[in-house]
Amino acid sequence: VNKPSYVSDSCWRGPYIRAKFSENQDDYIFDAWGNRYIYHKESLFIRSYTTGTNLTPNKWITKKIARSENDLLRNTINGYVRDLTGNPPRYFNQYIRIYITYPYNGIMWTPAGYIPDSSGYFTIYDVPQGNHRLFCVFDTTLLNPADTTDYAEKYVCVYPGIPNSIDFKLSVKF
Known about the structure:
By secondary structure, this protein is mainly beta. It has one helix at 69-73, and strands at residues 38-40, 45-48, 61-64, 75-82, 96-104, 107-109, 121-127, 130-139, 149-158, 164-165, 168-169.
């Protein structure tokens, strides 16, 4: 934010970060110099031309973001849902849904809920790399309107090509 005393005025082009954080939904598109990142879909790398010119390759910042398109876009998350005492849902699994949100076609998307099996195990397929919000909803109000619902939320960081596991523990007894 502020120029360090050991940096000359001729080298300082800052501030490079904002003094006060403010969220901008398009920040991921631009590098620290205000130029658009260049994404090369075929080779799965992203490039910043830093100073804005593509004439000086020795100043470029290039990072490979995944080994393959599958590693980038088709990861899995699995885990278990348990009750307060660690029991699986058994036949109550039909009242449980696991949801995930992630960017899809420029919007945050939540696909249809995933139902765990009677042991509480679930798998979510085709998850892109990145940080994602997962939430687990237990709802028996359709069975008995006097019942209550329970809800748990977690975040998972999905790395390309690496298995991901996350468990939910609800505050009810099955």
